[in-house]
Structure formats: C-alpha cells, structure tokens
Amino acid sequence: MLGWEELENKCRKCMRCGLASTRTNVVIGRGSKTAPVMLIGEGPGEQEDLQGKPFVGAAGQLLDLLLSALMFKEDDYYICNIVKCRPPGNRIPTDDEAERCLPWLRNQTLLIKPRIMVCMGSTAMKYIIDRNAKITQIRGQWTERKGFWIMPTFHPAALLRDASKKALMFEDMKKVRLKLEELRGLP
Ligand code: URA
Fold first, then answer.
1. Whole-number pLDDT of residue 187
2. I want to staple 156 with a disulfide (CB 3.0 to 4.6 A). Which of 47, 63, 92, 104 is the partner?
3. Distance CA 186, CA 76 (A)
C-alpha cells in the first residue's frame, strides 16, 4: 500500500490504460481523507478533466446540493470515481480500463478507511457490488462487505435526465445519513 504522496504522484503519471493519451488531468478525489463516507462515481467528465477534481460539473453541483440538504459536513465525505481519467465523449469505461484503474481506488480506500461506501450509478455498482445487478433493482439496499456498509444509488447525472429519480436518491442518501449517525453512536 502506498501513502498519499506516492499514490498521488504515481496516479498523475499513470499510463496503465489508453485513457492516459486523451486526458488533461488525472482526477484522484476531493473531500476529507479521513472521511467516514466515500462516494464513488463512474469517471471524470469534461469539467472534471479540465479542473482535475471529481464532480465539479452540473452533476457535481446537484450532488453537493443533496449532501448539504442532508446536513453532511465537508469532513464527512470523500468523492472519487471508478476511473481517474476521462473516457472520450464521456463513454462508459471499458472493463479493461476499470480493472487497470481499480488498484488505485483500493489503495485510496485503505488510506481513508471509510465506514460507508456509496456507489453512484451502474458503473460503480458493477465494480464494487455486483457485476450482474441492476441499479434500479438494488438501489437503496445496504450490502455489508469486508467491514464496509455499501449503498447503491443513482448517479446524480441520471437525476438531471429524469427528475423523478431525485426523491429516490434523496431517500437513499437519507439512509446513508442515518447509518452515519448510528455508526457514530457505537463505541
Ligand atoms: N460523473 C462521474 O461519474 N464522475 C465525475 O467526476 C463527474 C461526472
């Protein structure tokens, strides 16, 4: 396992897959490095690639609104993605790209040691929970694995396309908020 400095330096120079040749920036994560909640999306979009930070475009603004409406504090969460470089045209990352990138995410998880992981959308769900599940079927249901509480929910970009999903994602994130309180109350 690498420490933060080495991990970040190596990620910035990563050439493990073809996305390296089209990226502007490697997008590692944002938020607290001791956060109890880790939120995982799919991969950087255009704004994220340009700014080097995850979820800073329209979907990210909606996510930030949702988190503040549920009274999450900045120290409570860390936001990252399955892949750290933008897939051209925002296509879904291939299995090969995701598999080559996942060791970086595993290292981040070991450093942050979150209690809760939120998989936002089918790509995060696929690589973290179950390759064959459907997000519409398993969202909102906890999975406990290797000491992590894992919550699958929609990707915030899906809420921008279909406003009826907003209330559902809000319900799922309310469960995350309550679980965080519950875990904090435990010795
Ligand atoms: N969508 C993602 O999955 N991740 C980002 O960082 C931005 C948009």
1. 59
2. 63
3. 17
163 Cα–ligand 1 center, Å: 18
Query: Token pair 């997000």 is at which residue?
Result: 135
Helix pair angle (165-185, 58-69), 10° resolution: 50
Question: How many residues would you count in the chain?
Answer: 187
Give residue-wise pLDDT tens across range 130-187.
Answer: 999 999 999 999 999 999 999 999 999 999 999 999 999 999 999 999 999 999 997 5
Ligand 1 pocket member 43 (CB < 6 A): yes
pTM above 0.85, yes or no: yes
Cβ atoms 48, 58 nearer than 8 A: no
Q: CB of 67 closer than 6 A to ligand 1? A: no
Q: Which domains does the chain have, with CATH numbers?
A: 4-181 (3.40.470.10)
Assign 57 to helix, strand or coil. Answer: coil
- pLDDT, one tens digit per residue, over 15-65 is 999 999 999 999 999 999 999 999 999 999 999 999 999 999 999 999 999
The atom number, within ligand 1, closest to the CA of 53 reads: 6
